[in-house]
Amino acid sequence: MFDPQDAEFYEQHAPDFVRFASALVGPAAAEDLVADTVVRVVRSPGWHRVTNRRAYAYRAMVNEARQLDRADRRRLARERRVGSWPTDAPSTALRPAVTRAMRALSVRERAVVFMVFWLDQPTDQIAATLGVSTRTVQRDLDTSLRTMGRFLDD
Amino acid sequence: MTDHDRLVRTAMRDVAHAAPPPPPLEQLELHRPHRHPVPRWVTATAALLVVTLAALGVGLLGRSDGGAVSSPSTTKETSTTVSTTSTSVPTVAGIDPLLGEWATRIAGRTITYTATYSCFCDATGTWVITERDGEVLEATYVDDPLRADLPTPLLFSDALRFAATANGFARVSASSPTSLSMQVDVEKDAIDDEYDYAARDITFLDVTPLEVASGEFGGLGASPLLTTVATEFDLEPVADTVTPSLPGVTWAPCLSVQGEHWTLRSGGLLMVFEGSSADDALMTNWVYVGDAADGKFTMATSKGVGIGTTVDDLLASYPDAQQFGDVIDADAVRFGVADGRVAWFGRVDCVSD
Question: Is the pTM of this model over 0.90?
Answer without folding.
Answer: no
